[in-house]
Amino acid sequence: MAQRTKNVVTPERFAQGLTYEQWLEAIDRNQERFRENYERTDLSEEDAQAFRELVARPDGPARCLALAEAWCPDAFRGLPVVARIAEAAGMELRIFFRDQNKDIMAEFLNQGEFESIPTFVFYTRDHRYIAQWAERPAIANEQMGELRKIFEGRPREEAMADYISFQNGPIWANWREETVREIRELLAQHCR
Q: Which of 95, 97, 105, 145 is most buried, most CB within 10 Å of its CB?
């Protein structure tokens, strides 16, 4: 398990984060997008069981801290996925607004440099750092060109209907599935 020199997130601070339901009540936009992605996230019984087994380990991921903002498409796709994982596994999920918690974000920068969201930080039951995951699965980065094509040479307003269709389509759904797979692999690797 990785050792951390910084630790701005104490157990007390972690407890101040919002639950997923509190998050949905607190955000000022995209509640429907968050709900849609939550409803469309299918966690297989095999995945659910694997996450439950990981959480049950003495050094397992009993807690997850999330940093997000409601305007971010990666957040309204990824945060519901982790909410489903946490729910299925019995993991405590607490969510923080990135822009109101820059000290937390500074501790968990993506590649030590980027304030990527969502960022998910996993802790043991006694609040020891395990690992973190940020932004989107690798396949989404590889397929980002498909998304960019929607907006190329078109006014934003005109492209938005196609963008919404993309978010309801198979590529976006696969990104949710890949998020589950990558997080499962990450935690299995760090919780031995």
A: 95
pLDDT in tens, 148-170: 999 999 998 899 999 999 999 99
pLDDT tens string 47-86: 999 999 999 999 999 999 999 999 999 999 999 999 999 9
Both tokens of 181, joined, read 């797979």
Of 117, 2, 25, 140, the residue nearest 65 (C-alpha):
117
Main-chain dihedrals φ then ψ at residue 101, nearest 5 degrees: -135, 55
All domains of the chain, ordered by start, with CATH? 11-137+182-190 (3.40.30.10)
Report the distance separating Cα 13 and Cα 95, nearest Å.
Answer: 11
Tokens 């696969």 found at: 174
Q: Is the preceding peptide bond at 118 cis, omega within 30 degrees of 0?
A: yes
Neighbours of 111 (CB within 10 A): 7
pTM equals 0.94
> Does residue 183 come out as left (phi exceeding 0), alpha (psi in the -120 to 50 range) or beta?
alpha
User: CA-CA distances (angstroms) from residue 84 to 26, 91, 100, 170, 184?
Assistant: 19, 10, 25, 19, 13
